[in-house]
TrEMBL record:
SUPFAM superfamilies: UROD/MetE-like (SSF51726). This is Uroporphyrinogen decarboxylase (URO-D). InterPro entries: UROD/MetE-like_sf. It comes from the Bacteria.
Length: 453
């Protein structure tokens, strides 16, 4: 039985080989598990536990004991305290204790010009008070609400960060380098998810496609700033959940989605930061587009034909997903193992692959838990390569030149100050203190930017 330090070393080597374009010792194992599942599995009261976090560490520890992922299996947990302070209309806790997303359009169809003029200022002035009722108030009240919500959120994040650090060390999970991870939405996804709603955006695509295209272009600087972490690394990643393409006609995807999305991915790659994208729904129509992205882009699929995906993309990008979570509920353990063997036979040869499911594990009743753990452990214990250390086969780059970060206009907003902006307004700061003051002030500037963007 390997100890945590040995597991950490092995898992780091496996993922570094994967990202370096080598055949790893074995297929790495992913699989994201929601905090809600941990709470249900432990028999804790969902609502109270999310408010108090009582028993949450023990519940998460119990899952770590039972599963076999190589990466830390828990993602971001929303703060019900912050959401309640803000009186969120978008994310609200339901009667069952689950925080649920409700599509509430917070931008009107005739407001594209305001969005295009400056997206960040439009979000601050118009969108946030519509998303959060407590911010639709006078300036003093709004400031107090912001302060309380920020404090609640960062207390929540700090509590989970301490739990995460303990469990990562205890179980030897692979972790990316510090400050090398980010998350962002593609511009068109941002308009759909955060502003207009899916229905509203689809109407806009038909009625005013030129305005939608302009808005996507205007969102590029904000998107890139959100996506690029402080310390880019080929062993880190920026997560982008891609929602809208499955709802779009191919012609609309080509004209409205792909131009800005692909430039963000290219700019990040040029900065040394890979993108990990989750292709929501069916992307089989768009595989040839995905091929054109920078080599070793990480692509997880919800649906699709594994053979075709592997054939088209398997020598260029790192692939994952496709194991159907629903199968774990309806099939026997033996059938679930047979299914994962089938997937491994297709996806594992030649490397550039790690195992994952088509969805995250969120609720207890969505799977047979025994089947879930059996599949994860099977891959971790059996999916070894005979040719570990060899270079993974690849298609040569077609010669496409990728844009650089500097080719996207810099992000600017009157609600965001760089240190240079601040220094011009406060020339009285002693020169010897500038490095210290700059670091502190910029840190809080970035924290608030991430909070509201």
């Amino acid at each position: 039985m390997k100890n945590a330090e040995e597991l950490k070393k092995e898992r780091t080597e496996i993922f570094h080989d994967l990202y370096d374009g080598k055949i790893p010792k074995r297929v790495p194992v992913g699989g994201l598990i929601g905090i809600e599942f941990c709470i249900e599995f432990a028999g804790l009261p969902p609502a109270k536990t999310q408010w108090t976090l009582e028993g949450i560490e023990e519940a998460m520890d119990r899952i770590c004991q039972m599963t076999g992922q190589d990466i830390y299996p828990f993602g971001f947990a929303r703060s019900p305290v912050a959401l309640q302070i803000l009186e969120s209309r978008i994310l609200r806790m339901g009667s069952g204790g689950f925080i649920q997303y409700t599509e509430v359009p917070v931008m009107e169809a005739d407001e594209y010009d305001d969005l295009i003029k400056n997206p960040h200022e439009f979000i601050m002035e118009k969108v946030l008070p519509r998303k959060y009722k407590a911010l639709d108030a006078d300036s003093v009240t709004r400031s107090i609400v912001y302060a309380k919500a920020a404090k609640a959120l960062f207390d929540h994040l700090d509590a989970f960060a301490k739990i995460d650090a303990k469990l990562i060390e205890k179980y030897g999970y692979y972790t990316p380098p510090p400050e090398s991870t980010g998350i962002a939405l593609a511009p068109l996804d941002f308009i759909a998810d955060e502003l207009r709603g899916v229905k509203g955006l689809l109407m806009d695509v038909r009625r005013c496609p030129e305005k939608v295209a302009e808005a996507c272009e205007a969102l590029l600087p904000l998107t890139l700033k959100r996506a690029l972490p402080p310390v880019p690394s080929k062993y880190g990643q920026t997560f982008m959940p891609l929602h809208m393409p499955g709802f779009l006609r191919t012609n609309d995807f080509e004209k409205l989605y792909w131009p800005t999305f692909s430039r963000i991915v290219q700019a990040l790659a040029n900065a040394g930061q890979p993108v990990f994208m989750f292709c929501d729904h069916d992307w089989m129509r768009f595989l040839d587009y995905l091929y054109e992205l920078p080599e070793n882009t990480r692509i997880a699929f919800e649906f699709g034909d594994p053979k075709v995906i592997k054939e088209k993309l398997g020598k260029r990008h790192i692939l994952s997903g496709l194991y159907p979570m629903t199968y774990l509920k309806t099939a026997t353990k033996e059938q679930c193992i047979d299914k994962v063997k089938e997937l491994l036979d297709i996806m594992a040869p030649g490397g550039r692959y790690y195992f994952d499911f088509d969805k995250s594990l969120i609720t207890l009743n969505s799977v047979n838990v025994e089947n879930y753990f059996a599949v994860v452990r099977y891959v971790a214990e059996n999916a070894y390569y005979d040719n570990a250390g060899e270079e993974a086969p690849k298609y040569e780059n077609s010669g496409r030149s990728f844009i650089k970060v500097g080719e996207i206009p810099p992000f600017k907003s009157k609600y965001y100050k760089t240190w240079e902006d601040y220094k011009k307004e406060h020339p009285e700061i002693p020169a010897e203190l500038e490095p210290v003051v700059a670091q502190k002030l910029q840190m809080y500037e970035e924290m608030f930017f991430m909070l509201i963007s």
